[in-house]
Amino acid sequence: MLVQIATFLVDNIVAFFVILLLVRFHFQWLRVGFRNQVGEFVLAATSWLVMPAWRVIPGLAGLDLATLLVAWLLQALGLWAIAAIVGASPGAGVLAAAALIGLVRYSLYILIFAVFIQALLSWVNPEAPVTPVFNAVTRPFLRPLRRFIPPVGRVDLTPLVLLMILWVLLILLEGGVRALMAP
Q1: Which of 128, 119, 132, 117 is nearest to 159 (CA)?
Q2: What is the pLDDT of residues 123-149, one digit of tens each?
Q3: Contact present, 58 and 64 (Cβ < 8 Å)
Q4: Which helix (H) or strand (E) holds 59?
Q5: What is the value of pTM for the model shown?
Q6: Does residue 24 contact residue 42 with C-beta atoms inside 8 Å?
Q7: What is the distance between the alpha carbons of residues 162 and 108, in angstroms, rounded to a whole number?
Q8: Higher pLDDT among residues 54 and 42, named by residue
Q9: Which residues have a Cβ under 8 Å from the Cβ of 116 and sit 6 or more positions away?
Q10: Which residues are registered as beta bridge partners of 155?
């Protein structure tokens, strides 16, 4: 029972910070402003992790590599801690690859969440203060689909198509993780 509690706590605390770091990375990558409720929270919760890494790791072509590296290291550390708690000893290469796959998986979850919230806000309250944030996050992924999928009546089906694509990608990633972690 203690092992279960410990793995639950480590997994959730690490996932919380890794997701926030990825949101910070994606906001910078997609040029989403931080002057909103979501952006200010993300900056406040992650700056203490990222600031020391910025001194050492430069950005590359507008990408915040320091934030991405901190997220990857934190994910790998979390996987190592969980493996140690349950008594497993995966190799460093396996942990590094699993952490990278975890970052991609969390990024897909972030996009799925953004698509759901953006669709919900468009139906319920399109003038909400955070609507531009979710529009900015989803727009680069919905725009290519909108070229091929016209609205049906007045309903935009591209969020549904994007969600299906993202779920297929998640299924493929889960299969990759299982194959990676298999003895």
Answers
A1: 119
A2: 888 888 899 999 999 999 999 999 999
A3: no
A4: none
A5: 0.90
A6: yes
A7: 11
A8: 42
A9: 163
A10: 152
Nearest C-alpha neighbor of 95 from the set 68, 81, 76: 76
User: Tokens 């040029």, residue?
Assistant: 31
How many independent structural domains does the chain possess?
A: 1
Radius of gyration of the chain (CA): 18
What is d(CA 139, CA 84) in angstroms, rounded to the nearest whole number?
41
Place of tokens 């993202």: 166
User: Encoding tokens for residue 153?
Assistant: 């009546």
Give the pLDDT of residue 181.
Answer: 63
How far is the C-alpha of 82 from the C-alpha of 95, rounded, in Å?
11
CA distance 18 to 33: 20
Contacts of residue 150, Cβ cutoff 8 Å, sequence gap at least 6: none
Write out the two tokens for 103: 């970052």
The one-letter amino acid code at 148 reads: F
Euclidean distance between CA atoms 130 and 92, whole angstroms: 40
Q: Which residues contact 4 (CB under 8 A, 6 or more apart)?
A: none
Helix, strand, or coil (residue 1) = coil
Instruction: Supply the range of the domain harboring residue 66.
Output: 2-181
